[in-house]
Amino acid sequence: MPPARRQPPSGGSTQAAIEEFLRGHGADRLPHPGGTLLQHLLRVQQLLAAWGAGPDVQTAGLCHATYGTDGFATALLPLTERATLVALIGESAEALVHLYAGCDRATVYPRIDGTAAVTFRDRFTGREHQPSPADLRAFLEITAANELDVLAHNAELAEQHGPGLYGFLKRAGTLLSPAAQDAVDRQLGHLP
Fold this sequence. Notes:
mainly alpha, 9 helices, about 5% strand, DUF6817 domain-containing protein, DUF6817
């Protein structure tokens, strides 16, 4: 199978400009399973491309840790500077980055049950809201790509969190693309 083709970001910036932004904010110097944060972000984007995700989802995957996450506290950019990321990657992709970064995983993950009506809790504000079905699907694709890459590069985390992650992602059901579902089964389905 030929390598997945990355779609150009819809925000008007080139892939090179986005990578330069990430480097300029230290992503190439932050340790992360599998090397650096930048290497991880690029692999997440590549997975999303291989699964057929659209340009905004791929770009959000590339930038998903810009504001930090519930699992990776280091932020490359403070939330007060969201306009900077919007200008770089566009409103739609930035909104997905913000949704991903703001997810209170302990509250939201147990609510994922395969239905498109999931109430999110924003870890930054404490507010609850329901993302659109399209945004929920994008969130889950980015989540699957992120977690699969982390576990592929850290055997200890895979052993510790793989079975729970498998259960969580299987509960997402058809909210994940068939390609993402296959990747989840291949990588995590054999774990005890």
